[in-house]
Amino acid sequence: MEILGLSEPVVRLMSFASIFIILAAIELLAPRLERDEMRGALKSRRWMTNLAMVVLSSVALRIIFPAAAVGTAIWAESNGLGLLPMTGIPLWFAGLVAFVVLDFAVWLEHVVSHKWPWLWRIHRMHHADTGFDLTTALRFHPLEIVLSMLWKAAIIIALGAPPIAVLIFEIVLNGAAMFNHANIKLPKPVDALLRLIIVTPDMHRIHHSSDLRETDTNYGFNLAIWDRLFSTYTETPRLGETGLEIGLKEWRDDRPARLGWALALPFRYPPSARPSETADQKSPLGNQRR
Prior knowledge:
By secondary structure, this protein is an all-alpha fold. The protein has one domain. The chain is 58% helix and 1% strand. It is built from 13 helices and two strands. A hairpin with a 2-residue loop joins strand 1 (2-3) and strand 2 (6-7). Helix 3 runs parallel beside helix 7, helix 5 (91-115) packs antiparallel against helix 7 and helix 6 packs antiparallel against helix 13. The longest helix is centred in the first third of the chain and has 25 residues, at 40-64. The chain starts with a strand and ends in a 22-residue tail after the last helix. Residues 275-290 have low confidence and may be disordered.
């Protein structure tokens, strides 16, 4: 698949690099939080680990699932698979439906990764980061990236999602994830307006709180509607934006910034390991998470 003479991987790489550079510059000019984890030597170690993680995940995905999302959509289209082609609706509308359904599927996958013990032990590597910036959006274990792609591929085939819609979704999702993990300060009126539609950094940062009452909320990566619809939305952190503790209570040292430690985390500790939870911190959904 080509866009303006450029192959799909090149288009995605250019989009990723452009968004990353812009957000990195904004983080330097207008950081939301200024903490030890987000500056100096520890920031450098975190960035090296998080950037290495996205490289390893990309390699693993290319080896295990070379078709990726867009390739899956092209294959489904060429074989006449999926519900949307059967409806006869216009391409633009089919693309819009596919975009919204895929966004919900990613939100649902995220919720399940917090509730199912064996998925949580993989996903918690993302939450173990003691800092919160745009590289945190890249900090996913290769196992999680592969499993996520299998889930998206199943949805794409079931829908018969148009390949161009899948490409747009993948670019938007990656860009949105970097944006809402970015350590940038938005004016309150702008944040309040944006979060009616999309997930903002202040909104998603709450999800990275070490307090389970907040970790089990704000699961969205792109569209903000799902957390409101399913009552998993938290507007502000209990300790305030600057008092919010990020990461997992078990690991408050520099271990999460080490690449080897992060890669081994799903296998190093039992699936029951989870953030500490006091009696007054237990949430209605918390008992399912291990």
